[in-house]
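Progress against Task 2.4 (sequence-to-structure conversion) is shown through the following example record, which the project officer requested during the mid-term review.
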Amino acid sequence: MPRSASWHTPLCLAPPALRPWLTERGSLTARLMAHFPAFSVRVCTQASAGAHDDERRAIALARRKQQVEAREVLLMSGQTPLVFAHSVLQHRALRKGFRPIGRLGNASLGSFLFATPTIRRSPLAWRQIDARHPLWRKAAAHVADLPARLWARRSLFFAGHDRLLVTEVFLPPAFAA
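C-alpha cells generated for the chain above:
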C-alpha cells in the first residue's frame, strides 16, 4: 500500500504506551483478547456505502461514485469500547477471496484473516485523526465524549487480486493519548 503523507505520521509522535498497538503485525483481535478477557465484537453496520476519499486508491476503485462493502465494528471489553474498526472492499471481492466476510456476523474479521494462509498483508500505516476525518465522526456516532484527536492505523489485505482495507481507531479510556 502506498504510504501517503496523510497515513504516515512519524511513530515517535504517538504516546509510548500506544506504539506497540499501532505496530502490531499479528492479529489485533488476538492481542486484545489476551489483554481484555471480556473481549467481544459489536457490529455497528455492514452494508454498501461510498468509500472515503483516502480509501478509493488503496482498494483500486475504478470510479469515484462506485459503492463498496463497508463493515464497521466496535471491539469491546465488556461494555467498554476499545477500538472502532472500519473495513472496506469492492463488492466483487465478496464473491472471490473475501467471501467469508459477508457471513462473519459478530465474529472478528481478524479470526478469518489470520487463519487464512493465502491472505497477505501490506505494511501498516498510522496517523492521528480528528473531527475533520470521516472515521473520527463515525466513531463518535457510537462512542460518546471522544477526545479531539485519536490514533488510527490501517493496512491492506490481499486475497489474489482482491483488496480489503482495514482501519482501526484506538479509543479511550483503554488507549488514551
